[in-house]
Amino acid sequence: MATSKVSVFRKWHGKVPTDENGKSLPESEWARKRPFRWAARWFGADGTRYSRSFQTRKEAERFAEQKQAEVRDGTPDEPRPITLREFTRMYLSLRGDITAGTRGEHARALKYVAEHLGSQRLIGTVTPLDARRFVSWYRQRQHRDRCPAAATVNKLIRECRRIFREAVECSLIRVNPFGGIRQEKVGQIAWQYVSPAHFRALVGACSTLKWRSMITLAYCCGLRLGEILHLTWSDVDFERQLVRVVRKPGGDATVAWCPKDKDMRVVPLPAEAVNVLTELQLAATDGQRYVVVNAKGPAEGDRVKRQNITRDFQVIRRRAGVPNCKFHDLRKSYCTNIAQKSPLHVVQQLAGHADIRTTQKHYLQVQPELVESARRAIEEILR
Known about the structure:
The protein is mainly alpha-helical. Helix content is 45%, strand content 8%. Strand 2 and strand 3 form a beta hairpin.
């Protein structure tokens, strides 16, 4: 913001007027003989001098009063001009507080913005109208002959809103152009509840101990796939029958990783999980840090990666004769199971949700027996 008084003065241009003998006239006699404009001048917080020219003195004084009010209110100076390409590079280098996956999604969102608006577009010139036109363009953008789903568009809006909010906080822009864009209402997608019988069928259809352990930890402990793949033996407490989901700082034998909810949580281990973890520990090699590792191949003994997880799980599901479901449905089924015996805030804590509404909306499913009991209750009332 400006740190000194805003002054108004004449800004001369053109040659200095002279008298009959060709001698330069003093400045006191320039007013009627030399062209000029009125200018407002002030200094920024970094010592940079700013000025703005006007045709009339009235316009200059009106601007000076407005700028002086901004000095009193602490309003920052005009943001430094920066292109979308420069902002993308700066933003991705500064956001070390987000996961690698989130950083990749933000990079993709910025790539789409630059593709539509131009990478050399000054970020300060992006208006709310430009933001709405960009969202409209993305809705109609086809990939593999398909337009993005409404949920995908909503996710892009949230990411752009978060990215440009960072630009506002860094004083690169004054207003977030994506701040007023509303998301489209999207109905909740139904997911497949995995019953205990289906869980046992999945475990019985596994040909490897690795997959038995992954399915068991997801269904009996509610761990996310990333939490299972980054689980180390130091996180497992066999004596207290607990498992800790905790951030990994990274080192010679581990990869830097952070849980989705950022906080550590402790999850109880039921007997099914204890048994499969005991088998894994007996099969583990000396110095093995991760619980789930590759059993064969060029990366034998290394941490399992996410590649082909969905494909291999669907092979097991079809072999087990289980209704169509995703690996993440095992975690959702865990939340539904414990919700029948535990309060909702306990389910939220064990699932690692920051907002209890996430637990209610996406992770709980009303079981048929509860629907039947509601029907009987209505019939009794009516009788």
